[in-house]
Design brief:
Blueprint (H helix, E strand, L loop, with lengths): L4 H13 L6 H7 L8 H10 L2 H13 L11 H8 L1 H16 L5 H20 L10 H10 L2 H10 L14 H12 L3 H11 L4 H9 L11 H25 L3 H13 L9 H23 L4
Helix pairs in contact: 1-9, 1-10, 3-6, 4-5, 6-8, 7-8, 7-13, 7-15, 8-12, 9-11, 11-12, 12-13, 13-14, 14-15
């Protein structure tokens, strides 16, 4: 018997009502002040509370290039070498992947894209010309922006889901394909999921509206800046990695065009600086993926 979009929409509604609980570590880390005197000690407690992650952090610390070749033999030493802020980014990514583990190839593609987006947002946030975005907020918004795609994969199945990586005539055609199958776009589902988890409105709007053009949105101020940043980083994360992997003169020129044309209005620095920023961001994302996979970077 054929499954109708209406039936899928009803199952999706039930899926949203029965979503696994977002790990409390995410909401706890959201409340931390990186400038407070006890920030390092608080992060250390989080790491001690997750032995498997602590082991991965130790592995990363001992693999990290350092002038001091002495092996790290304590969690405290590992956190000092890696850095509390970087450890928090990895904890957030690990916590998020526990909600929707990337069991299938397309899930893994989405997580890699999400990590690339998160790191690009973190690196571009301090470069914004108008209203700045907190890099920590930017990172988590990028990490969670495509959470709705996992919900679609769970309910509809990967094979049936239209994917952003495929060639489409327009974004409207892609969203129409999603709605035709499930009655919702992945962005709408992501916004509903984050709202259900009780995340701040900025994250809900970022997930829900990151494919909307500015004239289609009703956000203002910092929320608008976060969405602009997410749209830019999402586009770069979709376009830049293949160019970086196939590093040729043509790909370098394509990257220069991408990073000058799209970013010149909102970010300080010249094209060469932006190219460097994207390189570094993708490198950090690759290290994060290696740690989460527990394989050498």
């Amino acid at each position: 018997m054929e499954t109708l979009p209406k039936d899928i929409a009803e199952r999706l509604a039930r899926r949203l009502a029965d979503l696994p609980v977002l790990p409390s570590v995410i909401t706890g880390l959201l409340r931390l002040d990186a400038d407070s005197g006890d920030y390092f000690e608080t992060v250390l407690q989080y790491v001690h509370g997750d032995p498997a992650f602590a082991a991965r952090l130790m592995k990363l610390a001992n693999a990290a290039p350092s002038g001091n070749t002495r092996p790290i033999d304590s969690i405290h030493g590992a956190l000092l070498r890696v850095g509390a802020r970087k450890a928090v980014d990895l904890i957030l990514a690990r916590s998020a992947t526990r909600v929707f583990p990337p069991r299938q190839p397309r899930d893994r593609v989405v997580w890699i894209h999400s990590l690339n987006t998160a790191w690009i947002m973190r690196r571009l946030a301090p470069m914004m010309l108008d209203e700045r975005v907190d890099p920590n907020v930017a990172y988590l918004a990028g990490l969670l922006h495509d959470i709705g795609r996992f919900i679609l994969h769970l309910e509809v199945g990967e094979e049936e889901c239209p994917e952003e990586e495929e060639p489409w005539e327009s974004e409207a055609e892609f969203f129409a394909a999603e709605k035709g199958i499930a009655g919702h776009t992945h962005a709408e589902l992501g916004g509903l999921a984050l709202q259900g988890w009780g995340l701040p409105a900025d994250f809900v709007h970022a997930a829900r509206d990151h494919h909307l053009a500015p004239e289609q949105r009703d956000d203002t101020g910092a929320q608008s800046s976060l969405l602009d940043l997410l749209r830019d980083a999402d586009h770069i994360a979709m376009t830049a990695p293949p160019l970086v992997q196939a590093w040729t003169e043509d790909s370098t020129q394509a990257l220069r065009t991408l990073l000058s044309f799209d970013l010149i209005r909102r970010y300080r620095g010249d094209t060469l600086h932006r190219l460097d920023v994207v390189h570094n961001a993708l490198g950090e994302a690759a290290k994060s993926i290696a740690v989460l996979d527990d394989v050498p970077a």
